[in-house]
Structures are given as C-alpha cells and as structure tokens.
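Q: How would the structure tokens look for this protein?
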Amino acid sequence: MTEVSVVVVVDVVVIVNAGVVVEANVLINVLVMVTVMNAVIVRILVDVGDQFVARAVNTGVVVVIGVMYVVVSRCCGSD
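A: Here is the predicted structure in token form.
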C-alpha cells in the first residue's frame, strides 16, 4: 500500500552576512529523506531566492512556502 500525502513546508530562510542561506533542520531532513523531491525543493528555493534576493538581503529573513508531494511507502517499517 502506498499513501500519497501533500505536505506544506514553511521554511524560514535566514540570510547571513556572508550570504549563506541557512535552512531549517526539518527541510534538510526532508531533503535527505526524499531524494526525488530534492531537486524540486532546491529549484523552488533558488527560484524564490532569485526573485526576492534584493528583499532577502534587505530584510534578512525570507519565508519560503513549498508544496511538495511526499510518497510514504510501508515496505521497511510495518507499524
């Protein structure tokens, strides 16, 4: 059985003085867990970051809302 769930990830991206983007641990964990959606999430972050780069540097905090489809398969862990 495979369950398809829609997860809305609200990530607060903090722009450091050096220009480094610090992501939340939750988003990082999701990226590591879901390899297929990795490219999609990164693409969204780059796209939004590219559009609001000026706003990001000015304000310092950017809220990124990404909607991704997570496929949870119960193959290895039967609960």
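The first helix runs from residue 25 to 33.

The helical segments are 25-33, 38-51, 53-59.

Upvote if useful.
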